[in-house]
Amino acid sequence: MQRKGGFLVSQSIQTLMVVGAGQMGSGIAQVAAQAGVRVLLNDVKPEFVQKGLANISKNLVRNVEKGKMAQDEMDQVLSRIQPSASLADVKDCDMAIEAATENMEIKTSIFKQLDSAAPAHAILASNTSSLPITEIAAVTQRPAQVIGMHFMNPVPVMKLVEVIRGLATADEVYQTVHSLAERMGKTAVEVNDFPGFVSNRVLMPMINEAIYCVYEGVAAPEAIDQVMKLGMNHPMGPLTLADFIGLDTCLAIMEVLYEGFGDSKYRPCPLLRKYVKAGWLGKKTGRGFYVYS
Ligand code: CAA
Fold it and tell me: What is d(CA 266, CA 114) in angstroms, rounded to the nearest whole number?
């Protein structure tokens, strides 16, 4: 193994634990395994891990059917991903990427457990979409080795990884994670730790404003989405995108911006709060700004 300044240099990340086997975690596990990294896919229940593995298989089979991947390559990718039922398995890993629920208590509990079980050289990353990396790092004994690695949904398709430096993140750790993202076929963009980073500080107020347009009767959801798709060349309109991301996630991110900056320009639209209270969370619950069968 190569080391620099006490940390592994990029090429040395060989074994990675992904914590959380949902949509984001399974996507991260897939692109890591495709990059030749051995992956332990962890979740609180074995059936969640199995669901994540099924999602990965489905994506890879689609690639094989389209002629974008050979069958034996797919088999190799799948053989690199092992299920894990315990965070203690991180003892054999060079790095962990946490992609669990967007809740500070859950994340800090995971980071404390990872920190106590991981080898001294291991890097601990969070895929959080807006929670503060510096605060997560502060619950560990290795804040210099904690970093944000924010993938976009759907992970196998989207090119960006926002790499977020916490206040204490070491340069070598940033370089290692930057290179790992590039090995995964992504473009890493460096960002400092402020509420919402860059992606959600820019994206979420736009989505929130689109929801205000519905709330104030400016236009129907379809019309708002059409304006942004046809007028601004966005691949999805903001309300379709909000449904796709999950309205609970959108609200949680707006709350982080609102509280983090203390600025009323980030106040979540009351209609967004109402939809979340109603359980209309978007595509995943079958109803948001649109109805899904
Ligand atoms: N998983 C894996 N692959 C997927 C996929 C998924 N969930 N959805 C689509 N794809 C693949 C398709 O298989 C297809 O692959 P090929 O080119 O190899 O055929 C390709 O993506 C394009 O898909 P489609 O032709 O079906 O549909 P499309 O052209 O409309 O693209 C899209 C779908 C890529 C999702 C596109 O609509 C898009 O870019 N939407 C915006 C997505 C976006 O903004 N994501 C960021 C959300 S914000 C976020 O993630 C951060 C946060 O913190 C909230």
Answer: 33
The CATH number of domain 3-192, selected from 3.40.50.300, 3.40.50.720, 3.30.420.40, 3.30.365.10: 3.40.50.720
Ligand 1 and 152: CB distance under 6 A: yes
105 is catalytic: no
Burial group, residue 3, by CB count within 10 angstroms (0-12, 13-18, 19+)? exposed
Which candidate in 42, 84, 200, 208 is catalytic?
A: 200
> SS3 sequence, 191-226?
EECCCCCCHHHHHHHHHHHHHHHHHCCCCCHHHHHH
Question: Which residue from 257, 161, 154 is spatially nearest to 203, judged by alpha carbons?
Answer: 257
115-140 residue pLDDT tens = 999 999 999 999 999 999 999 999 99
* pTM for the full predicted model: 0.94
Active site residue 153: no
216 counts as catalytic: no
Going from N- to C-terminal start, the domains of the chain cover 3-192, 200-282
Q: Residue 262 Cα, ligand 1 centroid: separation in angstroms?
A: 33
Q: What is the 3 state secondary structure string of 229-256?
A: HHHHCCCCCHHHHHHHHCHHHHHHHHHH
- Report pLDDT digits (tens) over 37-63: 999 999 999 999 999 999 999 999 999
Task: Tell me the CATH class for 200-282.
Answer: mainly alpha
**Nearest one of 89, 90, 95, 106 to 32, comparing CA atoms:** 95
Our answer on whether the CB atom of 200 is closer than 6 Å to any ligand 1 atom is yes
Confirm or reject: Cβ of 245 under 6 Å from ligand 1: yes
